[in-house]
Design goal:
single chain; 248 residues; alpha/beta; 2-enoyl-CoA Hydratase, Chain A, domain 1; 2 domains; 7-stranded mixed sheet; 9 strands; 17% strand
C-alpha cells in the first residue's frame, strides 16, 4: 500500500523495491524546500533500510517534476541570505546524492522534467521515459542559471550537447533523449511504472554487497585516470571473492 511520507511525498515498498513518488500534481511536482527535503530524507531512509535493495523515483500526475517552484523565489532574496544558502545547500545535496547511494535507483519520468526535475531524472542510475516526455533546462529564459544541475547534465551528455541544451533552453522529447543517451527506455505513459519496476526488481535479485560495490566502482572509475581506475578495479576484483560467502 502507498502511504504518505509527508503530504507531498508518497512512499511504497513492493518487496525489496522502494517507490518514492513526488506528490504535488497540481504544481507538476515543482520543488519547494519542503518537497526537496522530503525527497532527500526518503532517499537516505531507503538506502539505510536493510530490506530494500533498489529504488524507483517517480512523480504523480501529468509531469515528473517541473523544477524549482518559482513561487518560493519571492522569499529567496539577498535580504534572506541565510535562507538562500540553506536552500542551495539542500538542493545541491539532493541533486548529487543518487550516485552516492549504495542501492541502485531508476527514475520513471513522464511529461515535464524541467530544470531541477531534469537533474533528478538523469541523476538516477537509469531512467525510463514516457513517450510524452518534455525534458530540458529553460532556466536562462527566466533569467535563472541552471547552476546546480549543470554538472550532472555535462557528465551525462558531453560538453557541446549540454551547452546547447542549457544555452538555448530547448525542450526535447523521449526519442531524442534516448538517442542522446539520457534515458535507457522509452515506453507508453501507462507502462512507465511497470517498466521502471522491472528494472528495479531485476536489481533486487542481485547480491546487495556486489551491487553496492559495482555501483560505487562504476562512478569512481569515471573520475579517475585509466591506470588509477584499473588499480581500483583490481582491488575490488580481489575483494569480491568474499561476497558470496558473506551473503550466505
Amino acid at each position: 500500500m502507498t502511504e504518505p511520507y509527508t503530504s507531498i511525498l508518497l512512499v511504497e515498498s513492493r518487496g525489496a523495491v522502494r517507490i518514492i513518488t513526488m506528490n504535488r500534481p497540481d504544481k507538476l511536482n515543482a520543488l519547494n524546500t519542503e518537497l526537496t527535503q522530503a525527497i532527500h530524507d526518503a532517499l537516505v531512509e531507503a538506502d539505510s533500510a536493510p530490506e530494500i535493495r533498489a529504488i524507483v523515483l517517480a512523480g504523480s500526475g501529468r509531469g515528473f517534476c517541473a523544477g524549482a517552484d518559482l513561487a518560493e523565489f519571492d522569499t529567496l532574496t539577498p535580504d534572506n541570505q541565510d535562507l538562500v544558502d540553506r536552500r542551495a545547500d539542500l538542493t545541491c545535496r539532493t541533486q548529487a546524492m543518487m550516485q552516492g547511494l549504495s542501492k541502485p535507483i531508476v527514475s520513471a519520468v513522464q511529461g515535464a522534467a524541467i530544470g531541477g526535475g531534469a537533474g533528478l531524472a538523469i541523476g538516477c542510475d537509469m531512467m525510463v521515459a514516457a513517450t510524452n516526455l518534455k525534458f530540458g533546462y529553460p532556466e536562462l529564459k527566466h533569467s535563472i542559471v541552471p547552476a546546480l544541475v549543470m554538472t550532472g547534465l555535462q557528465r551525462s551528455l558531453g560538453r557541446k550537447a549540454a551547452f546547447e541544451m542549457i544555452s538555448l533552453g530547448r525542450l526535447i522529447g523521449a526519442e531524442e533523449a534516448l538517442s542522446l543517451g539520457l534515458c535507457n527506455r522509452v515506453v507508453a505513459p501507462e507502462a512507465l511504472l511497470d517498466a521502471a519496476l522491472e528494472i528495479a526488481e531485476a536489481w533486487a535479485t542481485a547480491n546487495p554487497l556486489a551491487m553496492a560495490a559495482a555501483k560505487s566502482l562504476y562512478y569512481r572509475v569515471g573520475d579517475l585516470p585509466y591506470d588509477e581506475a584499473m588499480v581500483a578495479g583490481r582491488e575490488l576484483n580481489a575483494k569480491m571473492r568474499s561476497f558470496r560467502r558473506e551473503a550466505k
